[in-house]
Specification:
The chain is an alpha/beta fold. It has helices spanning about 20-35, 60-70, 90-105, 120-125, 130-150, 190-195, 210-225, 245-265, 265-270, 275, 285-300, 315-330; strands at about 1-5, 40-45, 75-80, 85, 110-115, 155, 160-165, 180-185, 200, 235-245, 280-285, 305.
């Protein structure tokens, strides 16, 4: 199993009580620590407003961070889970990504999806296109990426995007272009786009019944398109909290809940951490978390991207995962 790590950027209220002037130095320190450990990759989200609701807390922009992370690390790969296609013209984004690939010496991953955060869409003036249009944009945008990164020029007279000889030079450093992660488990459209274009997929791997259903559908789409199912790496995300005892686990959840309650109130904060308390996420003692990771691997999860909600304040869970979980599964 391969492992990636989400770096806090504020989106999930992960910078409460941290002065904005201290947030980039903190992110820089965390990515450099990850660069020295066994993580294969580091990730951020492509969002502008916080969840579970918009607040005035910081959310740092993903592609600015891509370039910054590239400049301050040497080994670890860098990605977004996942870039919203509708937020940037895809020909422009292909050019941005190619430049970041050079800054990183060929370490960039492209996570891409249709987008879903309606408040954010509307607040930034993008409207909120139908799901059909958002997925249509995703399909056309990925085709533009492929052309730009392999041919150095993209031309497409699509329903949603029209580009005519958009030059992308220099090409990305990576042979064949930047690896594409298609995120989402939409059964009829998103998984078919993934089957056609993706190097990696990313959908729910915590509910193993859902995982099996989505994976079977992905394979069916691959068979229909003549794509090698084994050529696509299947990934999943999970939030992690680890304690030596169940009492310590509860204390750690209480800590996260108290931090978020300062911003969104007690009731919303309780909902925000509900899936930490109910066992949905990878939350528990080392033995409990290791057992869940083993089950995910047995089910076919090949790449796990972990998010520690405490990381900006306390790196203990991340260190335990590095020391006790990853060596047993890598």
């Amino acid at each position: 199993m391969r492992f990636g790590l989400f770096i806090p950027q504020g989106w999930r209220l992960t910078f409460v009580d941290i002065d904005p002037a201290e947030q980039w130095p903190l992110m820089r320190r965390l990515v450099q620590q990850a660069d020295q450990e066994a993580w294969e990759s580091i990730w951020v989200f492509d969002h502008f407003h916080t969840v579970p609701q918009p607040t005035t807390e910081a959310t740092h922009e993903a592609w600015t961070l891509m370039s910054a992370f590239a400049a301050v690390t040497d080994r670890v790969r860098i990605g977004q889970m996942c870039t919203c296609m509708s937020y940037r013209n895809p020909a422009y984004l292909a050019k941005v990504a190619a430049t970041v690939d050079h800054v990183s010496a060929g370490r960039l991953e492209m996570g891409i999806g249709g987008g879903w955060y309606e408040h954010e869409f509307r607040a930034y003036g993008y409207g909120f296109p139908s799901i059909k249009e958002r997925l249509g944009r995703l399909r056309e945008g990925v085709e533009i990426f492929r052309q730009a990164w392999t041919n150095g020029v993209a031309t497409l007279d699509g329903q949603y995007y029209q580009v005519d000889g958009a030059i992308c030079r220099p090409l990305p450093l990576q042979d064949g272009g930047i690896p594409i992660w298609v995120a989402g488990g939409g059964e009829r459209v998103t998984l078919r786009i993934a089957a056609q274009y993706a190097d990696y997929t990313n959908y729910n791997g915590l509910d193993l019944d859902v995982w099996a259903q989505k994976t079977a559908l992905l394979k069916a789409h691959c068979d229909d398109l003549g794509r090698d199912f084994g050529a696509i790496t299947k990934s999943a995300n999970a939030h992690i909290i680890i304690g030596d005892t169940e009492a310590e686990v509860a204390e750690r959840i209480d800590f996260v809940e108290a931090k978020t309650a300062k911003v969104i109130g007690a009731e919303a904060a309780a909902k925000h951490v509900r899936d930490y308390r109910d066992g949905t996420q990878l939350v528990g003692t080392l033995e409990q978390v290791a057992e869940r990771v083993a089950a995910m691997r047995a089910a076919g999860v090949e790449y796990l991207i972990a998010l520690s909600p405490e990381q900006a304040w306390d790196r203990t869970t991340v260190e335990r995962f590095e020391r006790e979980i990853m060596p047993a599964f890598r």
